[in-house]
Amino acid sequence: MIEKMKIRKKEGRVVRRIVTIVTLVILLIVGIVGVSGYFYVKSALEPIDPDSTDEIAVEIPMGSGISTISSILEKNGVIKNARIFKYYTKFKNESNFQAGNYILTQSMTLDEIIESLKTGKVYHEPVFSVTVPEGLTLEQISEIVAKHTEYTSEQFMELVSSKEFIQNMMGTYPDLITEEVFNSNIRYSLEGYLYPSTYAFYEEKPSLHEIVSTMISLTNDVVMQYGGLLEEKEMTPHQLLTFASLLEEEATAQTDRETIASVFYNRLEIDMPLQTDPTVLYALGSHKDRVLYEDLEVDNPYNTYVVQGLPPGPIANAGKISIEAALNPTDTEYLYFLADTEGNNHFAKSYEEHLQNIDEYLDQ
């Protein structure tokens, strides 16, 4: 028995020794990791090269969020670590960064870089700019690009219709452009994917690929801001752009897009056709001042008088206001609406009430 006690006592000493050694090793590892992490972060917060005077041209596109800006700065060699720059700006509660072209150096501190980005100062004037208004189709955008560049509208449409180009954009923006754009009923895969904005170009002859991809890039930046809402609504970016395009085309100067959005959602919920005239015009492929009753019967997947649900894809490019309205509709029971001759909208819960609005505001 005494012998067994001696053996157990010896084993206990061994166990305690092992525990002590393991504990010391863990503490040592934690200490090394902590010190290494401290110096890593400290290094990332310092200029890349305090003595550098080389100028680095950096372009911050319209609509860029802090994640995009951080990645651009790291890619251009202005900062050491994009993630740490992102956390640093959030820690300091910095925002309102301006799009533009900047001249930065590797000797700049993070605070100096932040201050520069907040000023929005462009280091040189653009060679030319292209303004794409809201509510335009690809064909209309092609005409605008043709007016400002040496490319023809035919060349523009050939590029945006090219499967190779579309797949290239899918690879670049996989969360934005998905297989949905290859739906057999879609007229143009990239319809609605060129964001309405003013685009400045700083070289005399940018490629057509660059011009179009810049517009798609901005759409990606805008739409990806609402990733959480899209997931919550179980809505894809393609469905969002399609829905928003209907609001964009229905909009008048005084319209309430959130309430129109509620009408569409209410109709979708009860499997009622959306019956929106802009989809008929898109189906016809031509602009008309007045949609006739015979037009409402055109057999086309975009005609929401004939087909239930959303059309196969966007019918125009939607701006941020329409995108946000599609994601944040007003809570109503309206199923009908109409715009009077002055652009004011009148909503109704029943068809009878809608007919009364027609009598009161249109049949005059």
TrEMBL record:
List the catalytic activities from the record: a peptidoglycan chain = a peptidoglycan chain with N-acetyl-1,6-anhydromuramyl-[peptide] at the reducing end + a peptidoglycan chain with N-acetylglucosamine at the non-reducing end
According to the record, the segments passing through the membrane are: 21-41
Q: How does it sit in the membrane?
A: Single-pass membrane protein
Q: Does the keyword Methyltransferase apply?
A: no
Could you list this entry's UniProt keywords, alphabetically sorted. Answer: Cell membrane, Cell wall biogenesis/degradation, Lyase, Membrane, Transmembrane, Transmembrane helix
EC annotation from Swiss-Prot or TrEMBL:
4.2.2.29
**Record keyword Nucleotide-binding present:** no
GO CC annotations? plasma membrane
Which residues constitute the signal peptide according to the record?
A: none
**Protein location:** Cell membrane
Kindly list the GO molecular function terms attached to this UniProt entry.
lytic endotransglycosylase activity
Might you name a Gene Ontology BP term for this protein? cell wall organization
Under InterPro entries, the record lists:
MLTG-like
The site annotation (Important for catalytic activity) covers 250
Q: What is its main location?
A: membrane
Give a short account of what the protein does.
Functions as a peptidoglycan terminase that cleaves nascent peptidoglycan strands endolytically to terminate their elongation.
Sequence similarity: Belongs to the transglycosylase MltG family.
- Name under which the protein is recorded: Endolytic murein transglycosylase
> Which organism is this protein's natural source?
Ureibacillus sinduriensis BLB-1 = JCM 15800
Query: Source organism lineage?
Result: Bacteria, Bacillati, Bacillota, Bacilli, Bacillales
